[in-house]
């Protein structure tokens, strides 16, 4: 049996290029004591992975050059040297970007097999880290409460679409989203139930936001940074909160871009901007599953996936996320 | 008796010019029922007043054109038509920029006469709104706690010098300040007990801060904005907090200046930037006086005043605060 895995060969400068990576063949690993051998079925691709491709110290260690990259994955256990996990079980773990992985049992979480009507890939998205990111950032970092008006950027993305829907389900007075195509904007309003949405490519963000939120916003969930953040600060109501989940607009800059010009507005509004990482909020996972799980099961909370097939398309899928090609969570099916 | 008072004639564009203002003579007002007539002894001049000279809606209403401006003042009651306040009492109120004021008793707070060794002017500064600004911003907005390292800009100013000293007295691991002259820098270290200080005009703020705080900072108290804020974000430790009290560097800009280029660092540090206004924190006043009063009385907390004499120099004193001419709280003595 042959294992294929994606290596990082050189650290991208600006936009990642195909020659920075290689799909390499290697032997299927042999699980050690306490490990399980997993045949991956779905691999996650996420914007944060761009950060780990750089050498700079970030919240996660940089990927090592000449070695296989990492990321979320779900797969089937085909061999077990650990108690409590049997061949045939499905597990969630962090050894993506490859076909086979030997995983310490303590780093593998058993998940449903998809038999209950929840597809396996959902554990990489709506019921996984993506969903918890939306939930924790909205409720804990941004202190969202019933009656707040909310703006979320990257709203058609995996995190953004959940942020807006969870806010609606929890009593937001108004939910506004921005996205990068008219198709996505329609999706936000027609399928996800946003009160308003706009295509940020159609005009200045600040102006479009003012029209969509004439009474201002109480919470901004930032996936984008740049113009979006400046516009949100400009529309922030008194006591407004900004949760910074990501700043996809700046990740590939080789020169740092100027920040918002209106930060002094934080004084008069008593506004707050705060960054967060989902890893600090795993304690919310039980509460999250308890509250959001039924919404997913009942269809009250909708989600989409963009599925790309084949390990050989893993890199292209990742680049697609950076470009915004995906609608909802992007996964690679093996 | 003639009253002299400063009027705003036109809204300054950029740096305020003398012709935007006029010192006008008017009759001494007659106190109505429930009012007291106060002969002002000290007038406060503060950077925030620049905001009220503009038409834009801010946290305080704009000054009206052709009318007398406002600001903190302490003076002696020379006539009373209110119960509980007698001629000879000294009161703190908000009708500065003039020699005489008729003040509703409910808007006047009785203060010591200076007989206990605390000069009357202190009620405009170290024991007044200035001191509470430092205290509330540091403890409540920035959640300062024992062991934190602190950076404060405008550190030789009225608020900044108190921020640094209160942090030291409450167990900061390291207190760093920036100021605009070598003389002020010496004052910070030699008199106020800062662990390190630098002159921001002597080199890039980010570099000087990194040298002064090689282990980073947990709290930044921002009086300045601009380069200082970007430098602070760059040196922010995990879980760091920024309290935005003022952004004096941007108040006179006619074009908005670009903001910090490194806001994405808030994600990895889980950093927080939050604006505040002292008016939201008057509930802390008793706790503040109880804790800081004894430090002032014992000399553990030092302060300086820059005193300018004469109502005719009130405008120049205000411009001096914007230029940074003052060391400590700037007041006008009548």
TrEMBL record, chains A, B:
Q: Which Gene3D superfamilies match?
A: Medium-chain alcohol dehydrogenases, catalytic domain, NAD(P)-binding Rossmann-like Domain
**InterPro entries, per this entry?**
ADH-like_C, ADH_N_2, ER, GroES-like_sf, MDR_fam, NAD(P)-bd_dom_sf
Enoyl reductase (ER) domain residues: 17-332
Q: Which domain of life is it from?
A: Bacteria
Q: Does the keyword Oxidoreductase apply?
A: yes
Q: Does the keyword Oxidoreductase apply?
A: yes
Which Pfam families did the record assign?
A: ADH_N_2, ADH_zinc_N
Q: Which UniProt keywords apply?
A: Oxidoreductase
| Official protein name in the record | NADP-dependent oxidoreductase
Lineage of the native species? Answer: Bacteria, Bacillati, Actinomycetota, Actinomycetes, Kitasatosporales
């Amino acid at each position: 049996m042959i294992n294929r895995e994606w290596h990082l060969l050189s650290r991208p400068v600006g936009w990642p290029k195909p020659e920075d990576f290689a799909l390499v063949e290697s032997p299927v690993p042999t699980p050690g004591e306490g490990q399980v051998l997993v045949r991956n079925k779905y691999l996650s691709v996420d914007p944060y992975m761009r950060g780990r491709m750089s050498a700079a110290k970030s919240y996660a260690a940089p990927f090592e050059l000449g070695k296989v990259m990492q990321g979320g994955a779900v797969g089937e256990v085909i061999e077990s040297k650990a108690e409590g996990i049997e061949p045939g079980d499905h597990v969630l773990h962090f050894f993506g970007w490859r076909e086979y992985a030997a995983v310490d049992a303590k780093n593998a979480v058993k998940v449903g097999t998809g038999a209950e009507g929840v597809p396996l890939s959902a554990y990489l998205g709506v019921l996984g880290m993506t969903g918890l990111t939306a939930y924790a950032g909205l409720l804990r970092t941004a202190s969202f409460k019933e009656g707040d008006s909310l703006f979320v950027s990257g709203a058609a993305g995996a995190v953004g679409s959940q942020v807006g829907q969870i806010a609606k389900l929890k009593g937001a007075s108004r939910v506004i989203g921005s996205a990068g195509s008219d198709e996505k904007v329609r999706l936000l309003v027609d399928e996800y139930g946003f009160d308003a949405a706009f295509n940020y490519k159609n005009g200045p963000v600040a102006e479009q936001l003012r029209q969509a939120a004439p009474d201002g916003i109480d919470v901004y969930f930032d996936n984008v940074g740049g113009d979006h953040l400046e516009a949100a600060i400009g529309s922030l109501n008194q006591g407004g909160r900004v949760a910074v989940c990501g700043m996809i607009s700046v990740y590939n800059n080789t020169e740092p871009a100027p920040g918002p010009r209106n930060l002094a507005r934080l004084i008069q509004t008593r506004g707050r901007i705060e960054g967060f990482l989902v890893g600090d909020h795993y304690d919310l996972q039980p509460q999250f599953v308890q509250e959001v799980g039924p919404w997913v099961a009942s269809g009250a909370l909708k989600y989409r996936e963009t599925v790309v097939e084949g390990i050989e398309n893993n890199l292209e899928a990742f680049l697609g996320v950076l470009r915004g090609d995906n609608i909802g969570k992007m996964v690679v099916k093996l």
